[in-house]
Amino acid sequence: MPKLSREGRYAIGFRLNGQEVTAHAPGRMLLTDLLRHVLGETGTHVGCEHGVCGACTVQVDGEPVRACLMLAAQAEGADIRTVEGLEPAAGELSPLQAAFREHFALQCGFCTAGILMSLDALLARIPDASEDAIREHLSGHLCRCTGYAPIVKAALAAQAQLKEEEAANA
Amino acid sequence: MTINPSADRWIGRSVPRVEDPALLTGRARFVDDIATSVGTLEAVIVRSPHGHATICSIDVSQALKSEGVAAVVTGEDVKRFTRSMTVGVKADVECWPIATDRVRYVGEPVAIVIAADRYLAEDAADKVAVDYEVLPAVVEPVAALQSDAPVLHPSLGSNLINERRFSYGDPDGAFASAAHRISIDVAYPRNSCTPIETYGVVASYEPGEDAYDILANFQGPFSIHAVVARALKVPGNRMRLRTPPSSGGSYGIKQGVFPYMILMSVAARIAGRPVKWIEDRLEHLAASVSATNRVTRLEAAVELDGRIRALDWDQIEDCGAHLRAPEPATLYRMHGNMTGAYAIDNLSIRNRVVLTNKTPTGLNRGFGGPQIYFPLERLMQRIARQLGLDPLEVIRRNLVPAASFPYRTASGALLDSGDYQSALDRAVLEGGLDELKRRRDEARAEGRLYGIGLAAVVEPSVSNMGYITTVLTPEQREKAGPKNGAQATATISIDPLGAVSVKVASVPQGQGHRTVLSQVVADTLGLDPTAITVVADVDTGRDAWSIASGNYSSRFAPAVAGAAKLAADRLRAKLGEVAAGQLNVQSDDVDFGQGRAFARSNPDNSVSFARVAAAAHWAPGTLPDSVDQTIRETVFWTPEQLQAPSAADEVNSSLCHGFIFDFCGVEIDRDTSEVRIDRYVTMHDCGTILHPAMVDGQVRGGFAQALGAALLEEFVYGADGSFLSGTLADYLIPTVMEVPDPIILHYESPSPFTPLGAKGVGEGNCMSTPACIANAVADAIGANDIVLPLSSSRIAGLLAGDEPQPKVKPKQVEDTAPGGQRKLTGGGSAEVAASRKEVWRMLLDPATLEAIIPGSHGVEKVSETHFTADVTLGVGPVKGRYKADIQLSDLDEPNAVTLSGKTVGALGSGEGSGRVTLEDLGGGRTRISYSYEAGIGGKVASVGGRLLDGAARVVIGQFFKALANHAGGGKVPGAGVFARLKALIGGGR
Q: What is the pLDDT of residues B435-469, one digit of tens each?
């Protein structure tokens, strides 16, 4: 990554949901603003801009990261996934997304993108994550609508579904 | 009753939400996702760092020169284009959306910077120079009523903006004859349901038509449309208000976006371009909107068996710095149900509304409920304790009798339906209260702290648009004209291919309105819900709406879904006549199902719904004479039960009244004082349930927010009005780790007053849960007085009692300066290897000062004796950037000088003065001695006196050490200590 200056504009190349992209941004621009307002991927939401609420969580090289605490220029060379990259095909939900719908694990849906990205990363890394581990992971997210219980249920249901698919494919 | 969804209808089934696919894939459109016109500018608001101060001057010249800036708007500009917002009581006071001559709360808008983008606008906002004269602040409502309290609005003469007294039945007689008088005093704290999406507004102005166009994630009520149009000095049809398709939660809070609609409209007018503003979280916490805090004394006249004969309420409502519409509605929403779930015939109420140096209040889930049910349900426990009765029995004995519905309360509410005793009994049985009692016995036998709490609540929904006029005297109401009702509206349209669309003005913020409406209309028209589309956002320029439109007072299921049902019924009747002609049968033989119209007497005789529905488009000549058209049906529905307040101040404040009975078992950890909810049971009677999963979702969501209010959340203010809960690390919201899953039970007593029998359900737990948990904690630790939130430290205080005083009295450091600021004093000396003359020159030289002031980013010389500086200072964890203004006086060259200064930054402010004396030690050496006295306010003052005192010493020590170094080395007594302290506290850069 180059040394950034306030005045400078930088060409930033990275993978976004499997596609190579190059975007231009000032050195001080946040990754959230780059994704939302430069690239038009508005599924990543901004809730607090100080790293507490978790709404802006994206995956950077497979790890959940607060996009509001990352400069756009830091994305250089990274592999970034956002909620727009979760759908297997247009109009088709992933097992995690489908479980959220089935268990009414969202209401306003504003915090949901970040939660999906966190859980997707967890289930990819630790397919056998315990309920406690799932809760621990979810504790980095604030949801004001659901009271969380349906989210935990959806996560467990998605985990079971993914394991089933894994077994079927094995 | 159990819920058995009927197989032949969609209502009552938990169908998947139509809202979800877009929300789960990132395709939903929230306010900040919507494309704006090319050339739209972005706004950043400069806000007050002071709780109370006079604005001496605002200098925008540097900001205007900043890159990309189009305009800077101040209070004077806003005054030029608008008029004061309407205030809901008769009082000589103005209410502006931006400070004009003084600021009255931390976060109050002072200027709006409009620039090409938010980054540039933030840069320029830093350059707006506001000169304040700090005034003493008042933050506690009782203190605000004192005769010597600082007055926020001089035109009012005091901080009391409204007072009314009410009497129903014969409260004096009941109190005189009752066996006991039992009372409770409560100070209910401030909090907010804080949606994860903040406010957003995009406004534009067309001078050729003198018309504003506003997009905002506003939630209603649309009576506020009238407030905004009046403020903007345009007729309502010149202020088009649109809402985005999705909104990221509201819980009442997004009603409070309306002052920003006015500000951004003016900003767009001045800038000559559309202006967009997205609030940030810090702004949201400090200055969006808060629930009211309230000080209440509640007394009951009680018989020996626990029956309550009368209640006497004395409420002091704190609405913050301005009385913004629709306040003081929080105080009056519950006016009809001030006797809760109980049959109490005699009632007296004294209501006072006061203004303090805090954020203005507004809608917040539960709206007025938490503030009354906390004292009422805490009092029920106290009555049981004092009389040695079972708390459950005291509740049961006082409940409104099952045979008396609809029941008229003392203050005029008409409780529509219910069987409170049966619902309570079912909850006790199915929720396992006896088992909890056993668990309590076992825990106590082991020496653990376990308690059980109860709460019974009536949950009002569908507000009477006239209830707020109860704040006026009957004479004032007579003059103003009656206000009543609650217009709900729904439009159903059929397109030329026979597809059905529904349009409502309910502005959901996540509640799934579109899904439920598709169920309601599908049942009536015999269609599959997936065949129906629903639009629920509003465009006041195109849609049917009225003042009651919007998403508040839990009105969707009872009122909006009901209106949709009525519109569908009307359309069905007409379509039945059309189908009768096509099927060649009588219209009363026509039925609709599975997407067809058919003859009940011969179901094989059928025609597709689309064919019946499209006739009005393609062949209107074939319609029977009795049918005008079947293309579009708009229904407005207002319930007749919502009458204006009577001359005796009786008011049916809400149409529906659900019933809730909660109980819980909690355990308190003796070591950590943490509250663990062992089990929480919540029984709801919300009438007919339209979508069970969504109803439970509302209950869980409300419960989680109420748990936060009970255990964690509070907007805290310092004595000087400084705001101490300004980030999500200070204002704690429950996470998945804190929220248990409550056991939810239902009892269905359909409302006779709503088209579908449904009542509201979204707010009840915000009313019942804080009291229920507090009662459990009181039971666990035997405490009499409980103050929310029940943080571990607060419970530790209750468990341990007063902290023992140390034998050696510590040095008093936490003095308070006038106005609530933290006072600091100190002094010291340093030796430098330079002559007095050289030191003197250095102290007056900006370049030297810049080099030696800790954390300095630049010092400018205004005059020989006046400097300004830009510095970064850290005190403990609180690091911030400050603007300092330093003046020199009493110059006695080269012996002594007085420095006085003011600093202002986002994290706080300070002012003080110090005297510096220079003593010639001979041999080119000089001793610099100094003493200072300072007052510190704002967030930085909250870190505590000792830390602050230490930090001040470190910073000043660094200054003199740097001076000594600059002068060519020297000795600073105690520098080692300073260095250690510096490492500890992190002062300087």
A: 999 999 999 999 999 999 999 999 999 999 999 99
d(CA B659, CA B749): 9
Whose tokens are 């015999």? That residue is B526
Interaxial angle between packed helices B420-431 and B391-398, expressed in degrees from 0 to 180 and rounded to the nearest 10: 150
Query: Who's near B191: CB < 8 A, 6+ residues apart?
Result: B290, B291, B364, B708, B709, B713, B714, B715, B789
In a shared domain, residues B249 and B185: no
Q: Is the pLDDT of residue A137 over 90?
A: yes
Question: Do B248 and B361 have their domain in common?
Answer: no
Nearest chain B alpha carbon to A95: B24
Mean pLDDT score, B256-282: 98
- Please indicate, yes or no, whether residues B206 and B330 belong to a single structural domain of this protein: no
How far, in Å, CA of B360 to CA of B255, rounded? 12
Do B203 and B109 fall into the same domain? yes
**B369-387 and B391-398 helices cross at what angle (nearest 10)?**
120
**Cβ-based contacts of B197 with chain A (< 8 Å):** 45, 47, 108, 110
Domain range for residue B759?
Answer: 144-191+290-389+401-469+643-800
Q: How confident is the model at residue B198 (pLDDT cuts 50, 70, 90)?
A: very high
Asked if ipTM goes beyond 0.90, one says yes
From the options 1.10.3720.10, 3.30.750.24, 3.10.20.30, 3.30.70.100, give the CATH code of A9-85.
3.10.20.30
In a domain, B26, yes or no: no
The CATH number of whichever domain residue B876 belongs to comes to 3.30.530.20
**Would residue B562 count as lying in a domain?**
yes
Task: Give the domain CATH number at B201.
Answer: 3.90.1170.50
Indicate if B515 and B610 belong to the same structural domain. Answer: yes
The whole-number pLDDT of residue B987 equals 39
A113 to chain B nearest CA, in Å? 7
Cα gap B964→B956, rounded to integer Å: 12
DSSP string, B753-799: TSTTSB---SSHHHHHHHHHHHHHHHHHHT-S---SS--HHHHHHHH
Whose CA is closest to A98, among A129, A119, A128, A127?
A119
Sign of CA dihedral B728, B730, B735, B739: negative
Flag whether B807 is in a domain.
no
- Give pLDDT tens digits for B83-121: 999 999 999 999 999 999 999 999 999 999 999 999 999
Q: Is the pLDDT of residue B861 over 70?
A: yes
Dump the DSSP string for B514-576: HHHHHHHHHHHHT--GGGEEEE---BTTTS---TT-SS-TT-IIIIIHHHHHHHHHHHHHHHH
Which residues on B lie below 8 Å from A82 (Cβ)?
A: 26
Test B735 with A138 for CB contact under 8 angstroms: yes
- Closest CB to A86 among B25, B697, B742: B25
Q: Compute the distance between CA of residue B21 and CA of residue B73 in angstroms, rounded to an integer.
A: 41
E strand map for B143-292: 160-168, 180-188, 200-206, 211-216, 239-242, 275-278
Q: Using the 8-state DSSP alphabet, how is residue B806 labeled? A: P
Which of A107, A117, A136 to probe the B interface (max B CBs under 10 A)?
A107
B360 and B261 fall within a common domain: no
**What's the structural domain count of chain B?**
4
Q: What's the CATH fold of domain A95-169? A: DNA polymerase; domain 1 (1.10.150)
pLDDT in tens, B302-320: 999 999 999 999 999 999 9
Beta bridge partner(s), residue B886:
B867, B901
Closest CA to B683 of B419, B339, B385, B346: B419
For A84, list phi and psi in degrees, rounded to 5: -65, -15
Is the same domain home to B333 and B426? yes
Do residues B540 and B682 both lie within one domain?
no
Does the distance separating the beta carbons of B697 and A45 come in below 8 Å? no
Peptide bond into B894 cis (omega under 30): yes
